[in-house]
Amino acid sequence: MAATSIRPPGPETPDWLQKLQYAFQFTRYLDRVGAYGDVVRAPLIGNNPNTFLVGSPAGIKQLLSGDGGRIGSPPNSHLRPIVGDTSLFVLEGERHRRERRLLMPSFHSERIKDYGHIIRDLTLCALADRKFGIPFPIREVMQNISLDVILKVVFGVVGGNRFDLLKSYILRLAETMRSPLFAACLFFPILQKPYGTWAYFKSLQQKIDELLYAQIRDRRQVKADAAPGTDILSLLIAARDENGDAMTDGELRDELMTLLLAGNETTANTAAWAMYGIYSNPEVHKRLRAELLELGETPDPAVIAQLPYLNAVCNESLRLYPVAVLTTPRMVKAPVVIQDYAFEPGAILYGSIYLTHRRPDLYPDPLAFKPERFLERSYTPFEFLPFGGGERRCIGEALALFELKLIVAGLVVNSALQLADQRPEIPRRSGVIVTPGRGVPMVLQHD
Which residues pair with 342 in a beta bridge? Predict the structure, then answer.
């Protein structure tokens, strides 16, 4: 079929108003634009009027493959103020590929297994200060576990004053980034002024930077002939590219912030959504708990992570509530046809993870929490893509999934939890990710 000469359909609402709708009511906005078809005009980020969403597996495959060089990856400029100039999120071309090659070995699945006991022990202690019968948001618990994992496993900070300060500042930074005003600052750079929400964010960022650079200096002082530590920062310091060059302090700092942004709030929110799905569906909870109990009292974390129904539960949570609703942007480099529409150079295209994960032709009854769908069939990387895809696929995916499974398993088996009420959780924007609006209130019961 020949490409149509008209551009894809989309709302007639003014571009500035669509940006506001996406920033403050993103699910309603995406549901509305998704009704226009598999490819829609949606000027939701930036100032390029030729910005489009692609919500079909075939179209997303084209985007992620690059279509023979016709489609490239522009930098994520709106994330630059958070992660810095040398982050994987903002680099492109050979610099991006070099940085990714340096990072990849530290996230090998075999190496990640070494962190299982740390994650398990943190999970077992997570509810120690919670009182029976008093509701609390489980998302808060998940964030605490996830941040402790980041500090110990990624940053290599195991305790002391630096640990306490970093944790305090990062929690305050995360709270700031959950503000709708902060999201507005990201999507409307003109609001990034030296006062108000943005100034507070920058002051916290500076405090965190000072502590991170101190940690980097300490890790570099290890004797040259000594084996690197097991934390990811130590492994990155020891990494060398094909020319024998190491990462600079600035590059290390930016990648630590990238891993913090990609691995803390994201894992915490996914785990909270998983608990919401599990405890909203008694049969899911019963089946998952039975599978976990079959392993005995102290199973190996690596064995837990291989359980099929646990994997299906986590995948269904990632499908229904992806923490990122879009892939990273793609830019048209040469004329290309996608889903019968012709695009000229300069057009910006996003794969819509949210819309793809809710396609009835892929996921019958798409709004229902049904883990068994992941036992009944396999999905391609263009039908199920909670971690993005292509050259921009999340580098920490293996660690995130491993951590998610161990946290969920540990809480389901070792804690008598239940939802505090039956009110539905509504997704809401938290900076650049999606979070349960109420934090999933739960209560701890006596066994």
Answer: 337
Decide: 445 and 158 in contact? Cβ < 8 Å. Answer: no
Helix or strand run (H / E) with residue 276: helix 265-280
CATH number at residue 435: 1.10.630.10
- The number of folded domains in the chain is 1
Q: Is the separation of the CB atoms in 305 and 299 below 8 Å?
A: no
**What pTM, to 2 d.p., does this model score?**
0.90
The Cβ of residue 236 has, within 10 Å, a number of other Cβ atoms equal to 23
Instruction: With respect to residue 7, please indicate whether it lies within any of the assigned structural domains.
Output: no
> Is 175 a member of any domain?
yes
* Measured CA distances, 357 to 57, 204, 326, 334, 344 (Å): 10, 35, 11, 29, 28
For 77, phi then psi, to 5°, come to -65, -30
Q: Is the dihedral of CA 235, 241, 246, 248 positive or negative?
A: negative
The residues with which 349 forms a beta bridge, in sequence order, are: 52, 330
| Alpha carbon distance 403, 169 (integer Å) | 23
Output the six-digit token pair for 388. 């993005």
Residue 8, domain member (yes or no)? no
In a domain? residue 58: yes
Q: Are the CB atoms for 120 and 406 separated by under 8 Å?
A: yes
Range of the domain at 257: 15-444
Torsion of CA 404, 324, 104, 208, to 10 degrees: -90
Per-residue pLDDT of the chain (447 residues; tens, 9 = 90+): 455 556 899 999 999 999 888 878 888 999 999 999 999 999 988 788 999 999 999 999 999 888 888 998 775 667 788 888 888 888 878 888 898 888 888 887 777 888 999 999 999 999 988 999 999 999 999 999 999 999 999 999 988 999 999 999 999 998 898 887 887 887 778 888 989 999 999 999 999 999 999 999 999 887 555 566 789 999 999 999 899 999 999 999 999 998 888 788 889 999 999 999 999 999 999 999 999 999 988 899 999 999 999 999 999 999 999 988 999 889 999 999 999 899 999 999 999 999 999 999 999 999 999 999 999 999 999 999 999 888 778 888 889 999 999 999 999 999 999 999 999 998 887 766 788 999 999 999 876
Query: Which runs of consecutive H residues, i.e. helices, occur in 351-417?
Result: 353-356, 373-376, 397-414
Calpha distance 218→224 (Å, rounded): 13
State the helix-helix crossing angle for 138-149 and 397-414, rounded to 10 degrees: 130
Buried b (16+ CB within 10 A) or exposed e, 278-306: bbebeebbebbeebbeeeeeebebeebbe
Cβ–Cβ < 8 Å for 124, 410: yes
Measured distance CA(158)–CA(382) in Å, rounded: 39
